[in-house]
Amino acid sequence: MSSPADADRVYERFHLIVNGPALFNALVAGLELDVFGYLSRNPKSTFENLEHFTKIRPHKLRVLMLALCATELIERHDGKYSNSAAAEDLFGEDGPDSWRQTLIGWQQVQYPGFPYTASALRTGTNTALSEYEGTEPTLYQRLGRDPELEAVFHASMASFTMATMEGLLGNAELASVRHLLDIGGGDGTTAMRFAERHPAAKVTVFDQPSVKDLAGRTTLAPGTDRVAFYGGNMFDDDFPRGADAILFSHVLEIFSAEQIVFLLSKAFDALPAGGKVFIYGFNASDDEQGGVYAARLSLYMNVLATGNGMAYPRKDFETWLRRAGFGDVKSYPGLPYEHGLIMGVKK
Fold first, then answer.
1. CATH architecture assignment, domain 4-92
2. Residues in the chain with pLDDT < 70?
3. Residue 155 pLDDT
4. How far is residue 134 CA from its own chain's centroid?
5. Domain at 104-345: CATH architecture
6. pTM
């Protein structure tokens, strides 16, 4: 039976949830107006300072700052505003790994689909996809029709990937790889960081052609000459050969169990004996309770992205790896932002 303290915590979470959409959009507005960046450069700023910087009319700015202070990401003392320590850490610098990119992408691409949640669950299809032009069955395919929005989506994916990447790149098993095939590797964010960390290794990124073209325009970093991009469909086209390891990072949770086993079987066929496969991404807990990131991702997949998939528990991936023929299956749970890494070896 729940204790009074547990009940109080749930009530507190309820009030945060029901006010969350408004506060989330106020947060994104603050990022788009560079309020957090300005306060990072100019802590203890007055309202008049912010008014002059944002060019927002006083009443509207007053409303925005009320909302941002309610999030506790911005603090107001003696009439002056400053970033909280958390906001300074999250938003103080606007680089490619900034949460600014992540949240703008969630706002523009993911969150408009969530009002379709009930209809998607009732019908068993990703009904929110109707908001996007085209007849293709997944969001990722339809985004290819809108290069500007596709770029926003991949910038968001890249920034969040960088926030979670150390859980993957810090793994000793991955460090031994000489040629990595990154399936669904997007704009090459993970591939570039792997190549930078391991100067003797090379990477082949395999993704759909529109993403390959985007990567060619946006990826410029040390190690570029060791990163190749290969366009194709991961279900219909053969995986490129020659790699001693295959990575599925933030990819397999998109699909159904049957599709995942199919892709893992393709990976098994493409690898030499002793080759390794790595699965990295969100994992639900074994009892499938809690985990706000896993819950959000799972809803997004079913309401909008593909109509399938979820943040599966690691035990599911372990089972599917063995079913595809892999042995020496190992798991590395408890990584940042509800992530896990699962590895298998082709015997």
1. Orthogonal Bundle (1.10)
2. 1-2, 95-96, 211-224
3. 86
4. 24
5. 3-Layer(aba) Sandwich (3.40)
6. 0.86
